[in-house]
Specification:
Length: 315
């Protein structure tokens, strides 16, 4: 940026066209310009290509404006990083890294504990309560709210979700479009898909997927289950390997499980189906009809032992 003897902006010269003395100037053009549109059109029509590169320089309008008696003001960026030029993927990655560092600093200034600010990625809007802690490699997208004393484990992705106070999200979990109540336990390796709602003290454990379902207070789905299009009441225990069979190939159907029900391991609930309050479903059952409240319902083939049976031998 060239200045006259009074210190006023006189013009901008490209490095390739600059003299040795001009190259020693430390004030440079970052590429951002603003001016009156009507006058700018006139100056652009007068820009020539008489330079080392034979190009039309937009920056020449500065000297043209000065020549016409129009004052030009230079605004200095307070931080050089704000006006970094990006010409390739390497420079883009460097600029993104600087942006993430500023974002992480802002989050920590709000009272959030980041285990490693270099490995935290906020790609949206984050609102946090008191004493929130976030472990490494966490990605936050969209609008996310974390209540007081929420703890987020490593390698977690949270998108467009609300997580109430005291909840713990363990490692490698994905939460997308979910509403999670207070003091819940999520994961590790859990997936909450859009329209999942967990009431207070609910538990969704390892390798559990929940989609478009409500899980009531203190209910537990701890292991290896798929809960889709379901309403689960309070104090329900869902055993390992339970599946709500919600899709018939054309339409989705709902499963309703009443308060205090106990679902054994390896159960298939073929929707639409309702399990009554306090009902018990025996392990390994496939349930396609309503199970009455307070009763044991099971559906299994009779166990048979074939005496003398031998497995086929190879060769």
């Amino acid at each position: 940026i060239l200045r006259d003897v009074r210190g006023q902006v006189a013009g901008i010269v490209e490095e390739r066209d600059a003299t040795g003395e001009q190259r020693r100037i430390q004030e440079i053009n970052a590429g951002l310009m603003a001016g009156q549109a009507g006058r700018l059109a006139g100056w652009l029509s007068r820009v020539g290509a008489d330079n080392a590169q034979g190009e039309y320089y937009l920056t020449d309008v500065v000297a043209l404006a000065v020549a016409d008696g129009v004052p030009v003001t230079a605004v200095c960026a307070p931080v050089a990083d704000e006006v970094l030029g990006i010409n390739d993927r390497v420079q883009l990655a460097e600029a993104e890294r600087l942006h993430r560092q500023r974002v992480a600093r802002s989050v920590m200034e709000q009272g959030v504990t980041l285990f490693d600010p270099q490995r935290f990625d906020l790609r949206g809007e984050l609102h946090c309560g008191r004493d929130v802690s976030i472990d490494i490699n966490v990605i936050v997208e969209g609008r996310v709210e974390l209540g007081d004393e929420v703890k987020i484990g490593p390698n977690v992705v949270i998108r467009d979700s609300v997580i109430a106070a005291g909840t713990r999200v363990h490692a490698n979990s994905v939460i997308d479009g979910a509403q999670i109540g207070a003091n819940c336990e999520i994961g590790p390796f859990a997936r909450l898909r859009p329209a999942s709602v967990l009431a207070e003290r609910a538990k969704v454990g390892n390798f559990v997927e929940v989609k478009k379902s409500e899980i009531g207070p203190r209910s537990k789905v701890n292991h290896l289950s798929y809960i889709g299009d379901a309403t689960i009441g309070a104090d329900v225990n869902v055993g390992a390997g339970t599946i709500t069979c919600n899709y018939d190939g054309a339409n989705k159907h709902r499963t309703v499980i009443g308060d205090g029900a106990f679902i054994g391991s390896g159960v298939e609930l073929v929707a639409p189906v309702e399990i009554g309050a306090g009902a018990t479903i025996g392990a390994g059952s496939t349930i396609g009809k309503a199970a009455p409240p307070g009763e044991l319902t099971l559906e299994r083939a009779r166990q048979v032992t074939v005496k003398g049976w031998k497995r086929p031998q190879k060769g």
